[in-house]
């Protein structure tokens, strides 16, 4: 079955090497971990990053022509190796190889334990404790399989298969539909996405719509959220699981049984990335490279444009989505390193002082220096035990204060030490636009890096793509892999079952997007943004200094009280209802501005909107007067120039 829509494909029209079937001894799937992202567009999508270092937004708009958010697809490829371990190249339908894919994903959030940070005492209380109770002692172990019996709380479509016929091109899209019952007498269907292929038979994984709801209530009348991260009877449609492939060829019919079977790859379906081209100082790629560092490094030594510049330039990019970063690293700030790029790229004595100063401001990894539990050290982000402690804040917190702050990995820190000491080489900036422009032996590692560098690796509290299980070495295959498997990153799916990587995340995911709104992951969920009009694109008089005023990205959603004891999370409720109307942050360049800037685009929610249980749409608007009708309460809200004149609200939401 063919769809009318085809996404932009940077690989389109590129020929592939003539890989002879009889030379193949082993095949592998890349990227080893693919990242899909939810969106409410049912048809349109775009391919996730396949080359590293690109900060331009995806081809076209973030929304389809109807205004719905496009999903990010994770595309998987197959690479062939000879008996010596040499990469022969990618194999697909264009060379008559038949790719038979199997995928198994699940959502197990509702069956998991109550949220707890990695360094907190393990909680053994369950989400939805009255449904499918578990007998015996509970451990709080993130690899616990005893919770698999809680089937009423698990959405599991099972292992599903797809292939594109190499001769006819025919393929049938495969829906990934499971059921969720919760405490209700009957289960409801939940879609976690679908499987497709591209024109060469590669796997294309599309996640769900991003919808979250309580099965106790009608879909169009969601209740107020009254839990921080553990909402009872709620379900969302993010997921994770494994990917497998079998390959055949007419010239070698028994190929599937003769070659060494591939290691399973992994797919994560996550929330949208609303800040495009802006990355976290530590990504999942950094986490994995650090875990595997004793047996594998992408390259020898320290390379400026691979190891150092992504972090330094990233601080400037973060200044467009976070006020604290703007103060320290924005245009004109001392911590804006863009003007120093050329000088810093070379290990000369000219920049020795600056390089040493940069290193002195980095927080040591693994919480080993407890005196660095302050915002003067970088990154200025929260850690795996909760909110960063601001100057003058209460330091009497659960656990060690240093665990409230993020840090680079041990490997990242070592490379910055090399940078400080002048022991590095310049290397080349990332400029390649299509993966096929790399040599065949480089393509697997570049696919892995491209897909993972836009993820959140630290902090994971709870996290965006994966919770803190993603930092544990036990989650990965670290032994028995071929020496020439580059990169060797593989999730161990014997212990990490489908749904395990996401089950410790926020339920629903929108609660995390509401509550983690200061210094958590502005590269995915912006905090403070430049909200402007299209005039900025044509107004050559606009300068960086005039764009210092920032607005809250989530303006228009109610504020959740800081006192969590009240069990009232109105911002989380509004995020569930209106996440798809928030804006995307993308890079633009202006004639009179020396560096790129990031501004908000495609916002569908009017700023100044006061949310509640009223209609999304204004039914009357003239001369500053706005009237909204309540679909639930049977009342109205009247404003003038965004000031509330009259409003009917539930008692708990009184003005």
From TrEMBL:
Give the signal peptide as a residue range, or say none if absent: none
Q: Which residues form the L-Lysine epsilon oxidase N-terminal domain?
A: 30-249
Highest taxon above the source species:
Eukaryota
InterPro entries found in the cross-reference section: LodA-like (IPR033798), LodA_C (IPR041173), LodA_N (IPR041168)
Task: Tell me the ranges covered by the L-lysine epsilon oxidase C-terminal domain, including all copies.
Answer: 396-527
Q: Report the transmembrane regions from the record.
A: none
Task: Tell me the protein's name.
Answer: L-lysine 6-oxidase
Species per Swiss-Prot/TrEMBL record: Mycena sanguinolenta
The lineage is: Eukaryota, Fungi, Dikarya, Basidiomycota, Agaricomycotina
């Amino acid at each position: 079955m063919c769809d009318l829509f085809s996404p932009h494909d940077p690989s389109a029209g590129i020929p592939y090497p003539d890989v002879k079937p009889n030379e193949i001894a082993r095949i592998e799937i890349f990227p080893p971990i693919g990242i899909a992202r939810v969106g409410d567009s049912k048809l349109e999508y775009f391919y996730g990053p396949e080359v590293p270092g690109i900060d331009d937004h995806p081809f076209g708009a973030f929304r389809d022509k109807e205004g719905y958010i496009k999903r990010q697809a994770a595309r998987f490829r197959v690479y062939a190796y000879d008996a010596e371990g040499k990469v022969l190249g990618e194999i697909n339908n264009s060379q008559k190889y038949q790719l038979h894919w199997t995928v198994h994903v699940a959502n197990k959030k509702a069956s998991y334990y109550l949220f707890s940070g990695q360094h907190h005492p393990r909680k053994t209380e369950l989400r939805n404790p009255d449904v499918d109770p578990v007998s015996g002692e509970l451990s709080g172990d993130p690899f616990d399989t005893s919770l698999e019996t809680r089937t009423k709380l698990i959405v599991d479509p099972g292992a599903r298969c797809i292939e594109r016929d190499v001769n006819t091109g025919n393929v049938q899209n495969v829906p990934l539909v499971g059921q969720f019952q919760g405490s209700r007498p009957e289960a409801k269907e939940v879609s976690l996405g679908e499987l497709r292929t591209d024109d060469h038979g590669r796997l294309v994984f599309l996640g769900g719509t991003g919808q979250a709801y309580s099965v106790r209530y009608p879909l169009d009348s969601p209740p107020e959220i009254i839990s921080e991260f553990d909402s009872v009877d709620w379900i969302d449609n993010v997921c994770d699981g494994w990917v497998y492939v079998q390959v055949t060829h007419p010239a070698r019919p028994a190929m599937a049984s003769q070659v060494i079977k591939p290691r399973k790859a992994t797919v994560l379906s996550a929330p949208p990335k609303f800040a495009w081209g802006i990355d976290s100082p530590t990504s999942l790629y950094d986490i994995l490279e650090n875990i595997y560092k004793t047996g594998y490094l992408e390259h020898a030594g320290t390379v400026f444009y691979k190891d150092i510049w992504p972090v330094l330039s990233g601080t400037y990019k973060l200044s467009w989505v976070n006020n604290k970063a703007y103060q320290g690293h924005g245009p004109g700030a001392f911590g804006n390193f863009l003007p120093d790029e050329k000088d810093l790229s070379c290990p000369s004595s000219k920049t020795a002082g600056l390089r040493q100063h940069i290193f002195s401001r980095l927080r040591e990894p693994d919480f080993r220096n407890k005196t660095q539990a302050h915002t003067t050290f970088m990154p200025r982000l929260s850690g795996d035990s909760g909110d960063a402690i601001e100057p003058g804040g209460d330091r009497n917190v659960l656990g060690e204060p240093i665990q409230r702050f993020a840090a680079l990995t041990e490997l990242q820190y070592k490379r910055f030490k090399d940078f400080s000491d002048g022991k590095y080489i310049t290397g080349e900036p990332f400029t390649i636009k299509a993966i096929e422009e790399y040599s065949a032996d480089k393509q697997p590692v570049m696919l892995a890096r491209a897909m993972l560098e836009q993820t959140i690796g630290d902090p994971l509290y709870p996290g965006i793509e994966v919770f803190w299980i993603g930092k544990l070495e036990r989650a990965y295959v670290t032994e028995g892999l071929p020496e020439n498997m580059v990169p060797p990153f593989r999730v161990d799916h014997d212990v990490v079952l489908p749904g395990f990587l996401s089950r410790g995340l926020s339920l629903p995911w929108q609660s995390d997007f509401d509550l983690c709104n200061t210094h958590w992951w502005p590269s995915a969920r912006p905090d403070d943004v430049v909200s402007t009009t299209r005039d900025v694109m044509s107004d050559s008089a606009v300068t960086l200094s005039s764009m210092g005023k920032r607005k809250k990205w989530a303006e228009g959603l109610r504020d959740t009280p800081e006192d969590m004891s009240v069990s009232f999370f109105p911002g989380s409720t509004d995020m569930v209802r209106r996440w798809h109307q928030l804006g995307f942050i993308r890079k633009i360049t202006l004639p009179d501005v020396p560096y790129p800037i990031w501004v908000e685009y495609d916002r569908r929610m009017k700023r100044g909107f006061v949310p509640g249980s009223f209609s999304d749409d204004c039914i009357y608007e003239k001369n500053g007067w706005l009237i909204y009708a309540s679909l639930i309460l049977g009342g109205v809200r009247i404003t003038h120039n965004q000031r509330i004149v009259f409003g009917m609200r539930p008692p708990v939401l009184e003005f």
